[in-house]
Specification:
Elements (H helix, E strand, L loop, with lengths): L1 H29 L1 H25 L11 H7 L3 H11 L4 H8 L3 H18 L1
Helix pairs in contact: 5-6
């Protein structure tokens, strides 16, 4: 019983597909100019979007190398430089300590050392 139902369902689906295809063929013949115009317009729209995204895209930010000459002049270690980056980002001492896995006292202790070195260099 169910095989017969599936067979009739497949036959009806094939018939519907054939009728839809014939309807599409008739529509395509009657409105071929409109269809081509739509395809050309869609292609130009996609081209405009792609070019617009490329032209108006924000440039990739350049990476900051940390100014190695100034770092060498001031005698800053890599860890002190990391603390400075976190301070410049506006993080608190506790946040910096959590991010760098050091104690907050170490963050507070390195801040005056860096400040003294910067005052001596200027």
């Amino acid at each position: 019983m169910w095989k017969r139902v599936v067979g009739y369902g497949a036959l009806l689906a094939a018939g519907t597909l054939a009728l839809q295809w014939l309807d599409y063929q008739r529509l395509a013949r009657m409105h071929s100019g409109d269809i081509y115009l739509f395809l050309v317009a869609a292609a130009f729209m996609v081209l405009g979007i792609v070019l617009g995204v490329r032209v108006f895209a924000a440039p990739a930010p350049t990476t900051f190398d940390g100014n190695p000459k100034a770092q060498a002049t001031l005698g800053l270690s890599e860890r002190e430089l990391e603390v400075l980056h976190e301070l410049a980002a506006g993080h608190s001492n506790k946040e910096i300590a959590a991010r760098l896995h050091i104690s907050p006292k170490k963050v507070r202790g390195s801040d005056p050392d860096i400040h003294v070195r910067n005052q001596g260099a200027s």
